[in-house]
Fold this protein.
Amino acid sequence: MRGQVLGVDARTGEGLVAGQDGQRYRFAREDWAHRGEPAIGLEVDFETAEDRALSVFPMPTAPGPRRAVPPAVVPANDRNKYVAAVMAFVIGTLGIHRFYLGRTGSGIVMLVLSITVIGLVISAPWALIDMIRYLVMSDEEFAARYPRTRWRVKDVAGATESSPARGGAGTCQTEGR
C-alpha cells in the first residue's frame, strides 16, 4: 500500500503513516526498511498488518519540472549613454556631461578648468576620453556606474522628505547636507 508519513518521533523512531485507504498505521524504527530517517510528508510504500505499517520504503521522487532561468534584469536608468557621449563631444570641455551623470565634483573641476587656455588643453582630452568610454561601455555597466540617487531634505521639525534628484526615479538613498 502507498501512503504518506504524518509524523515521526526522532527519539524513538516511531511514526504514523496515512494509507491510501484512509486508515492510519503505526510503524517502529525496525519497520523502516531504508537507510536514513523518515520525514514528515514523505511518500512511502508499505505492507500492512492490522494497524501496523511494515517494511516501510520511501517512494522514489521524480524530478520536478525544471524552472526556467529568469532573464537577466537590466537596471532601470533614465540616463542615456548616447546622450552623455554627445554632450561630452559637443560641450565636454565645460563638464556638462558630468553634471548630467551626477558627477558634480568633477563637473565643477572641468568647468573651472575651461576658464583658462591651459585648462582647456586638459579638459578637452578628458571629455574625449569620457565620450569614448560611454560609447564602449555596455548598457548594464553604464546603468550600474551612473545610478540615479535620491536626496533627503530635513525640515525644521526634523522630519525627512525624500525627493528624487532632478525629477528622476531613484533606487539608492543618500543623505543630503
